[in-house]
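Expect chain and fold; see below:
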Amino acid sequence: AGAFTVPMPAYAGPLLLVATSGAFIDPASGTSTPLDGAELTTALPEHRSGSKVAGLQLTPVSTWAVALAAHHARAEGVPARDALATAFEHLNAHLGALDWRNVAPADLTAPGVATLGPEARAGLVLAGLSFRARLAAERAGTTASTATISSLLTADALDGTFDGVGPSGPLSLLGAPLGPFALRLHLAQGLAAFLA
């Protein structure tokens, strides 16, 4: 887990927070992994000048929520606030039944996680994602991290659905089609590999 501070001038309105550098703890290996230009994003639909906001999480899931919300706001004319809320509702329900806007995923490779609370469930989802990238990398004879697969899933979300197709056409993870099952069967396979 990391922390950040963003000094703000007098401003009220929506905010998009984007991280493009730094490192995160890979949940499958427990090692520090650089972002290497990959982006993690989150959004605040309404920031009030002078207010302090704590507990925001920049995760793959918050990044996908922003991509889904951007599609629905642009393509369907849904107000950005409503589009973001709906995107998080869907992802929250599908990925651990927790609030990805505020939960800090636990590092499951570190001692001290004793219950399957929201932080552990979030860590488990990200570990499954990381292991899915690892499995694909092993098959391809190369390396990949959570950032690799997260970037692909962000591109996948830009059309409003996780169907394996991005703005430029079908997406692939190290030569294998991403397909419509990345956040279903493939995530489950990654979870099973992590727990084995």
Summary: The helical segments are 60-76, 80-94, 118-140, 146-157, 185-195.
